[in-house]
Every structure is written in C-alpha cells, then in structure tokens.
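Class, carefully examine what follows:
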Amino acid sequence: MPKPSVPKPEDGTYNLKQSVPSLPIVLGRVKKAGDYVFLEEKNGVAYHIIVHAGHRIQGYVKHYLHDEEVTIDGSGTVVSPAHFNDDGNAYIHIESRIGQSGETAYSSVVGAFPTIWSTNHRGDGLASVEMHCFTAPSKDYLKIYPNQMPEHSAVIDGMPLYDPRTGTTAFTNNLAIMRLWHLTSPYGGKLSLSDMYLPDWINAANVCGQNVTNRSGGTENRYDGGMWFRANSDPIEVGRTLDQAAELVVYERADGLIGVHAGEYVEPTITLTRNEIFSFGLNANVDPATTVLAVRGRFTDPSDLYNTNDAAIYGNPYIGEDTERTLTVDNVAVQSHNHIQRLQKLAYIRRNGARVSITAHYDPDNDVAYHRFIRVQYSPKLSDAVIEITSKVTISLRDMTVTFSGIVVPSGLYDFNAATEEGEPGSSIVIIPPSSAPVPVNFDVVIQTEIVSGGSSAAYALATWDFASASLTYELEWEKVTGSTGPQSVISTAGETQVRSSYLADGTQYKFRLRTWAGGASSSWTAYEIRTATADSTPPGVVTGASATGGAGQATFNWTAPNSANYAAARIYTNTVNSFSGSTLVATEYGPPSSADSRIVTGLTAGIKYGFIEAINASGIAATPQATGSFTVT
C-alpha cells in the first residue's frame, strides 16, 4: 500500500462530502440491493443498516447474501445456509422495517452505538434492514464467509398502490395501476386523481388482469410486472417503460382529463372512406432492407434471481444479431417469458406492417383524435383495413382537416397461441452455492499404546478415515469427557488417511471428532466418538485374603494386594446376593501393594451383605474379583 501523504493546507478549505443517492422507488415485486446509511464495527461485530426503498413497502419476501437465499428464524438469526452457522454458533442476524410513518429504531445498533445512533433514528418512511455479522475465528473464516463480508439483497413486494376498481390501496403487480400511480406521483406526472379519467384506467387495469395461457398450459395475468427506479430518474423514461410493458397509450381527452387506451384490440367505431380522405400515402414496407425477420427480447426473469435474460427469438432464429433485419424489445418491467414474447410479436407485426399517412376532412362527430384503432376504405390501395394510429393527431381548424399516421394491423393483433408461438426460453445460469470441504467418511478411533522412556507404556488415539483426495488435510480434535480443560487438535499430512493424537491420560474417557480442510476452509465436524485411554491392557494379580466384617451402618474390608508391578488400586463392591453381577461399587483404595490393606466403608444399609474386591492397574483394567463372604450390617 502506498504511504499516505500529509494533507496540504488547501485540503482543509472545503467540507468532505459523501454522495447521497436519490430515494429508490419500488413497484411490484423486485430483487434489489440497497443504500448504506450506517456501517460501523464494535467488539468484532459489523453493523449494517441498508435502505431499499424510500417509502412504505408491502414487505420483504426473501433475503439473499451474495445470491444465496437465507432462512431467518423468528429472532432474526440466519439459520441457513449451514456455513453461516458453525459448531452451534450463529454469525449473522437480520432485522427489517417496512417503512411505516412511525418506525422503531434498531435496538442492537442503539445499544452498541448510543452516542451516534439513538432511538430517534427510526427511519420513518424508509424500508430497511439491519444486519450484524460476527467476526469468525481466523481458521474458520473462509468456511463461514466464503465470499468475504456478506452482500445483502432482497426480494421485495413494493409500494401499496391505489386501485380505482376497489377504491383501496394495496400491493399489486398490475402495470396499469403502476402507471396511474406514476402519473399522479411527485416522481412522475405530478397530477392528481381528479385529473385522471378513471373509467379508462379501470378498464386498463382489468385488461392487465385478464388471464392468458402460457406455453406450459398454465395461466397468468396479461400485463403483470414490476420495476424500481430512483426519485431523480427521468419520468419520461419510466413512463415509457410502463407503457410499453402494458401496451398503454396515454392521451388527453377533449374534457382535459387524462385517459388511456388499454392493451387490447377495440373494434373501430370510425370508418374513413375515399369521400373523407383527400390526401393518402401508403408505404407497403416490402423493401427487404427495412423488413424485420426476427425480434429478440430481454426481460427480468424471477426464476433467475430477477436477472435480465434473453427470451426465445420470435421469427427467424438464424438471423444474426448485428443486422438491420432484427429488432430487440428490452423492458425491465416485464417479468414473464410469455409476456415478452407477446410484446415481441406485436413489435414484429408493427415493424413489418404497411404504413399510411392520411389527411381527411375534420368532422367533430367523426373525430379520430381520441381513438387508437380506425377503419379505412380506400380502394384499391386499402380495402376495409384496420389502422392503428401511431402519431399525434393534428387538427387544423383553418383548413378543417385532420392529419395522422398509422400502421395497417390485423384485427387479431393481440391474438397469441402460446403453444405454437411462445417458443422455449434459454436456460438460466445455475448458481452453484459455495460448498465446504467434504465431511470425512468412515471416521474411527482406536486407542493404542507404545513404550516410552523408563520402559512404561503410554496411550494415544489413532484416527482413520477413507481416502478422498491427496490435497485434503484433516484435523483431529479431542478432549476429556469430564473435567475437560479445553480441546486439543492435530492436523494430518496431506494425502494421509490417519493421524495420531498426543499421549492421553491413562484410564480417562475422551471424545474425538474429525473434519476436513481444503483451500483454507473446513468441513463440518463428524459426530463424537467416545473412547477410554488404556495404556496397560494387562490386569494385575488378584487380591488374597479378602474378608469383611459388618457393623452399625458400615463394614470393615481387609485384603492383601497382589505383588504386581502394575497394581494401582483395589475396588470394593457390595451386593445383597452372593453374586458379583449387579453389585455396587462403594469404594476404591489407591496405593502401593500391601500385605495388610484395610478400608472402612460407611453409609451401608442394614441387612446381610456380600462383598467383592478386585485389583486394577492404572488403566482401569481389573483382575478377577475376590469374594469376602457374607456379613451383616446393623
């Protein structure tokens, strides 16, 4: 890294400004990231507050971290994918706010940074998430965070919109309702509902909600979709996108209200004949240089994490992309392959249709200015043709004429047979989630011994597993089952299928587990294997002279320890019958061998008892128990 330079005096003559993005607006269902309003770290925890929309939203549908969909429990803890939880520890926590007018500050951030973030930092009217990520141990960092610090994004159901059909405000994917909102919002037309001719908009919304059949045989709404933009986005471009997606034509009516032609074919009520037309131009559009042979489409694909995907080509699929014989329909508000294919067909028909330019006598009762489709009878060039008006209608009151241009279209302009016309979309890119190293297979632990200095033996654990790859290494971890002072571990050599522990305490029970390491990341641990460390598997000699004398709630046991070098202690058992099976251990007497060992055992219940004494070595290996005979506890 270059060494930082010392600031010059001129550097202190202006305030440091941070770019503040314009508010994002979300309509329908979209997937998007957000804008940071807070990012700080304390005690190894990074706190993020990210704003996704500058208004109230319907809610968060799904959360993603680096394009991995995550599952959140009721307390906000990310519980899957599994790599965000390691060895019982959860590393990421996510909360969300939908941007109500009176929100609640994130308590975790207020608690961690009370001097800079208080309960007054509510984020009213801002849809946001708070995510805090705990620092992972260095050896587990790449396993828990394979893509470094998580990058959050979410699928969002956006702004609730006013629906003139019901008179209520609710979430919708209806593109006509979105366009109505846009025209009446401060980010669009800045009009009011009183400026809109609502019967037109009700009809357009109903058309958008009509059922159409797609290539799979299922049904979907005719014009549904979603998009997001910023408050400073060009309102003309936003409006054009919505209009194209829903096939809308917005116009001003004679009464000054804003009406809309819905995306449907309407049988013309006006017919212009040769008597009304005194200027007529026709371009049959048969020049090969201007006709289009294929139309490509690009749309937002929800099945591919809302990325922009290519649709099937409508027309001749073998026409190259870099040619005037192709056309592309690209609309971010379209979220269905069937939808974009219908728009591609419309573009194909309109681009190749014959074009007309007409000047006709103006008749107030026969005014074409407020119509989308008319009929023209101008034989022999056109015989009862349907014209879709595509230009502004100009009325000249000086000459009492009306002038416009249009395209000759079929009456079945909006007909679409999905089974034969939709085509098959290209395959989406399959995102492969990061995978950890493989969990060891057939993990086993065997306690073995070896002779150490002085001729004594010591126990160690030998772990084995199946071979998977010469590039993998394995970590064996062990600790005492009781009285543990912490786990210990050892790493194997790459390509090996076994590894041994250090020396273990003789006669102590241990739990062992194994995991794989690859590329700096580890697998999950295997289940624990429980083993008892045994350095000496040879039992000592048996005790002799075993006897017991009863007393008041106690008994005195006597025996002679064997003269064995590996003798470590004697165990004393009692039973209510003359059988070692089912007896109870009541005492253990440690010490070197002695010819006169004795132990008083208290706390015995009254009755006739039977005693047994066995010698054990340091590993707990026992010799045959010797009976003391019966005795009576009073």
In short: The first strand starts at residue 24 and ends at 27. The chain has seven helices and 45 strands.
